[in-house]
Amino acid sequence: MSFRTVATVDELRDDTPLACDVTDELTVAIVRQQGDLYAIEDECSHGKVALSEGDVYGCSIECYLHGSSFDLRTGAPLNPPATQPVRVFPVRLSGDDIQVDPDNPLSF
Ligand code: FES
């Protein structure tokens, strides 16, 4: 595991995605929902737009462009037009730091 600090907890608002660069190649949308943290790759698998620009509904995030939603826990698409999952990553709090492990995407 190689967790990296991507933001601090005071930058995050409940149910509002926060785009965070983890590496030069990876940006994630961090979401806090009912006390749980999620880190989902910030790129829709359908049209390559930022998921962090969309809205959070329960444990899902909706792409603003064509309306596909993705499960924040698994990255699975929940409705068309997207058919491919988006990667999700381990995320944790370390003190006030939000940390993401970019090297070990979760698999389901
Ligand atoms: S670009 Fe996200 S659903 Fe089409």
From TrEMBL:
The keyword Cell membrane is annotated on this UniProt entry: no
SUPFAM superfamilies to which the protein is assigned, alphabetical: ISP domain
Family matches, as InterPro entries: Rieske_2Fe-2S (IPR017941), Rieske_2Fe-2S_sf (IPR036922)
Keyword DNA-binding among record annotations: no
Keywords: 2Fe-2S, Iron, Iron-sulfur, Metal-binding
Gene3D superfamilies with a match to the protein in the record: Rieske [2Fe-2S] iron-sulphur domain
Residues annotated as domain Rieske: 4-100
Superkingdom of origin organism: Bacteria
Protein name: Non-heme iron oxygenase ferredoxin subunit
Organism (species): Tessaracoccus lacteus
